[in-house]
User: Fold these one by one.
Assistant:
Number 1:
Amino acid sequence: MKLFSVKLRASKDGKHISGAERITPYEKINTVINQLYHRLSRKEFDSINIKIDILKEQPLLVEKTLPVVNMNFKNHREANKWAIQIIQKQTGLSEEKIKQLIDLIHFGASPDRENMRGAMIVDLRGNRLEKNRSRGVRTTDVDYLDREKIIRKLKEKCFTERTADALALTTKNMLHSDIIAEYCISDEPDYLTGYVSTKEAYYRLTPLKEKGNEKGGRIYFVKNGADIDKIYRFLEEKPVLIKDVDI
Ligand code: PML
């Protein structure tokens, strides 16, 4: 079956404000564009770009997402302490270094102190490796084989559509042998749930950020000596379809 990648990106005053994407068969392109437009147009925008591309290669089929572990904390400081500990265990970086990196995400990690458009990449010496510090790396071309079923399942457990997207994205990231952990908070000021992923699990932490903070983003922790070009190619180009969620 021919599959297409559909991507919508909204911007205002030349700045990216939100984006969403799906992998879909030809017959559903129209429906998908409507759904994504509906989602993006909740925010004020002055431009939306729609990009439709046929997938040049067959997607990698993955049975299940990472298992979801849901955790609640008294406040975002407690949740971040826990996040730092788990990242410390995975990466061997010092707690202080991890806190510095996480603070960048909470206060704006691009050189102009705005949000990066994609993720930061950090190796196990604490060096930032992304090719461009404003753009970062973007994980794209990942979706569910049957999205409606997955959303239903997640909502039954009080998870959200954002969980669906984040869980798919980080499941793809963790498939790469050089990526060993991820930290993420939303750039949505009222969406306080974030996560840390490892090869073993998706730790969903609430609240991981302070209410009202418009800053957000992701850090991908990679092995020393990782081939950065290969990581970019896999994350930005390899299509992945996931069959089910592990909840
Ligand atoms: C969750 O609900 O499981 C966390 C989702 C994080 C969303 C990050 C984003 O907005 O991109």
Number 2:
Amino acid sequence: MITTYAYGFPRLGVNREYKQSIESYWRRKISSSELRENIDKLEATRLATYEKYVNRFPVGEMTLYDNMVDTALMLGLYHCDNLDDYYNLCIGKKALTLTKWFNTNYHYLVPEFASPIPRFRAAWNKPKEAIAKYKKGVPYLIGPFTFLKLSTGIAKERFGDYLLALAEVYAELISDLDEVHIDEPALVWELPPAEVQLIKLAYQKMRAANCKINLFTYYDSVDFMEDLYELPVAAIGLDMINGQENLKAIRKYGFPEDKTLICGIVNGSNVWRTNIESAVATLNELSRYAKSIVISNASPLYHLPITIAAETLDRRLAGRLSFAEERLYELKLIAQVYAGNRQGVAEWNKQGVHFDSDPGVKERIKHLKDSDFSRSIPYSERVVSQQQRLALPLFPTSTIGSFPQTPVVRKKRAEFRTGRLSQEDYNTFIRQQIAQLITLQEELGLDVFVHGEFERSDMVEFFAEKLNGIATTLKGWIISYGTRVYRPPIIYSDVSRPNPMTVDEIAYAQSLTPKPVKGMLTGPVTIIAWSFVRDDIPVSEIAYQIALCLQDEIRDYEANGIKIVQVDEPAFREKAPLKRRDWDQYFNWAVKAFRLASQAKPETQVQTHMCYSEFGDIIDRISQMDFDVITIEASRSRGNITRDFIGGSFDRQIGLGVWDIHSPQIPSPEDMAEIVTRALEVFPKENLWLNPDCGLKTRRWEEVIPSLKNLIILAGRLRKGASSLKNATD
Ligand code: GLN
Ligand code: ZN
């Protein structure tokens, strides 16, 4: 019988117990020991789930917030005396920053190396504690290379020194262990040969510990298979789902006799059931190369909801799905079939059905022509008619869309969802919220208005609920970071728009004011990035299907007198493949999908929003999206972002996020002016807008109102052309 191993099982709990416990502790509703007890209970359930299905699994994956920050603590980079110190590091005023983990929507806390860089030391042996406590399982660690690659503040030329220093600390951490699970997803990046050599040296140092290392790579294939084979490790985990090249490399180079191949054969990042037959066929082939094989998930299971059993989905769809617990079952099934027992297989793969394709959608996709992907006249001409129509002042002020989702708003939505509030009463409530916000924006003196997004819980799920071909779940929660969770919808069939989705609210908002109100949509790439997508048609086609729905929505906006539309694409960058060589292919469809979605009349202004600032290497791709205005993050980098645009050919309007909405601080006009001053060195003043970084959904009114007032004061000063922005008086 082949051994089964699984890792990364979600820590959230079916009823989000993880979130509830930690947040209760933050609100001082439970004590630190109660929190630890709750988390221990959750961990016991998690480990028991593994045990129910698979032979082996890691121990010590549980964390009170994030495993990257835990690793930093283990290595002595930070010191925490108690839980409050720990949470200060995670969510306090001076918390570490959050960044997306590889090309997923999980965010980790970025360890920051202050200078002088502290000496690493084995400050906390978390894996050893875990094995002492649970007695079974393979102690878990994030590897030194991945840890260092994902941290900031290390001078490039010192990287090697630090990696080797770290390897010594790792050797110490694992020296008391017999076996260890080490995650090294960073090994799937395109690495220069010098770094590959460094990885070898680092792992050779760790060999001194005499501990059996099981090394896991995932999310893509490893480019340097021969070198990887030379590492002194006992087992190598390869992703056979997202890393198709891995199989080709094994065919070419074989597999070392002295190592175990941990074959990642069930999908950790999408929800479709594994075809058991073809998984077994792959294993049969691999067994010709590898003497010892363990089967596993291809990437960590925390990108999946916990179990399909918690859902009330259409059975035809549910029968095609596999969440984290079902993946464990699949591993068991594959092992059993591999050993010759086919019981249960036919049933597993026959429970669901494919839905008929939608001929109307197919027809539209088939007839797409090049001209459907370009606006009818170039920006230089569009901008003239837009400006005539909108008559905006210099430095127009606006916001990104959402306004505070107060407890009242959330309560009403919950009441509506559970049927305690009628559709009519809910609509009335939403309209009241919109009307109040329009009045407020008038009082504040903003130039371009929004309706506030009070009717939306989540920018993807909201649209998923309105579109055909996309299902939403009841309990399919996934951690996005810390205790923040979201439910990715499931795109299972052709996507179409049975009815307008947002036109009522936007048109109502516009009816209340002569100022332009932005029509607010989530872009096709972001809808795809934050959903599970079907795998029977190319992702580009799914994107075009969604794009056509958005295009229809924009047509309806135009018919209702809406002059500006904003198509949000916050996931545009995150979705880019890990390997640069795959970028052209991705950006090609991503840019086209945006352009197809944002087909609007020349006089309609198309805006987009992205909430980050790592643009340096994708500015050209972004320019190809052919929007009229983009709003981006600029405050956390104090305007450094503008450097990326120097010397480029970027000629569109740009709204700099001069207020960091991720912080509760109220920025003064002077704080914000600093960023604008820097921007004016790069952009002509006619092209600059002023706005917050992102939506204001998570902020409080007490922060929103004074901050927007300051933003408008700044706009006034700028318009007066005060010679020194800093000292100008009103
Ligand atoms: N329009 C959205 C909002 O304001 C954008 C959110 C986002 O970029 N993540 O909430
Ligand atoms: Zn944003």
